[in-house]
Amino acid sequence: MSFINFEILATSIVILCRVVIISLERLFPYNAHQSLLRKGFWNDLGMYTLVQSFVLSQIIFGFAYWLDGITELSSYGLLSSWPIWGQVLLSLVVHDFYIYWFHRWQHHNRYLWRTHEAHHSTEDVDWLSGPRSHSLEILINQTVEFAPLILLGCAPETIAIKGMLDAVWGMYIHSNINIRSGVLQYVINGPEMHRWHHAIDHEAHNMNFGTKFAIWDWIFGTAFFPSGRKPVGYGLGDENFPENYFKQHAWAFRRFRKK
Ligand SMILES: [Zn+2]
Ligand SMILES: [Zn+2]
Fold it and tell me: How many domains are contained in the chain?
């Protein structure tokens, strides 16, 4: 299969998963009051999911190929002999471990929190909440994710599969689906724990930092997984947070309040 066909296949899988997840949200909702066209829907779909992700991918991959052009690191083919599944698995585990700690740092450092609060601003957590992230956060995390794959000589298919997994997993962990994954929730992350990460409930603050794997939260003591109840609500609890994409971006650079 040519790489172009492979990319078309990966994009088709993302679109199919989108349709399946939206359908499951309607059939088995976790929070039944949430509607598909919830507050911020068009902003999240148009500006974050379509425009921002396209523009940032040009910048991130442009930078990674430029870096490879001056260092010629990929010519050593450090991972080239690995099978594609091995390259994907290595990147999945290593990048997810990195993102657990970076995410945790974002919640505890007031400057880094500015790059992350847009992601927490959604008041209805659903399939579309994942892409709502400040461009600085995406630039940092996806450069750390994809530049090493290019520099280590990974196959283009690895990059396409990783991008596909990011999109599908991001939709899944935010989805408004009433899932019971049982013991799997101790290893693989899902909406059962990640929806709590967005909760306004005090005891859920600064818990459940995992993205693809929940195991980091269980190992490092940040897992929050109560049974028999649901979050009171989601979001920042800050009515001043703007609704417009550009204003949300500018909001990160507002002055810090004097204590
Ligand atoms: Zn967070
Ligand atoms: Zn999230």
Answer: 1
Residue-wise pLDDT for 139-187, tens only, equals 999 999 999 999 999 999 999 999 999 999 999 999 999 999 999 999 9
CA separation, residue 199 to residues 43, 119, 136 (Å): 21, 12, 23
Rounded distance from Cα 213 to ligand 1 centre (Å): 15
Whether 257 is in a domain gets the answer no
Q: What is the pLDDT of residue 2?
A: 72
Q: What is the whole-number distance in angstroms between the Cα of residue 12 and the centre of ligand 2?
A: 23
Is residue 259, in this structure, part of any structural domain at all? Answer: no
**Does residue 256 sit within a domain?**
no
Domain boundaries, position 114: 3-251
122 domain residue, yes or no: yes
Average pLDDT score over residue span 47-61: 97
Q: Which residues make Cβ contacts (< 8 Å) with residue 201, sequence separation at least 6?
A: 231, 232
Count CA atoms closer than 13 A to 29's CA, side-chain side: 10
Contacts of 232 (CB under 8 A, 6+ apart): 199, 200, 201
227 CA distance to ligand 1 middle (Å): 21
